[in-house]
Amino acid sequence: MLKQLKSGALAWRKGSACMIPAATVKLLQAEAAAQDKKDGSGSGIAHLKLFNPVGAGTWKVSEIREVEPGTWHLFGYAEIHPGCGEFGTTSLNELGAAKLQMGLAIERDCYFTPQPIQV
């Protein structure tokens, strides 16, 4: 279950690999606001990378939006199967609720550095 902490961070399990820090959430929200202006001010830079630790699935995220209270959508480039990626929206709530093998969850790449999204 996805929770927003008092700090503003988003967490779907205990542990830093299953949490988006508050500063990153704010940055991704600012990118979403810039895209809403439709003036080309959005950067197209991925500031967050999520991945499946036991199989295929990588999400490079450039925007985040709270579409309803407690419901978060990510925008970026998702590649579920190598070579078959696409830009689009993904539900962070659904990613956080995914039950993977060995009791693992979708994780944040803690060592990811912001980079332009390239296909």
From TrEMBL:
InterPro entries: DUF2958. This is DUF2958 domain-containing protein. It comes from marine sediment metagenome.
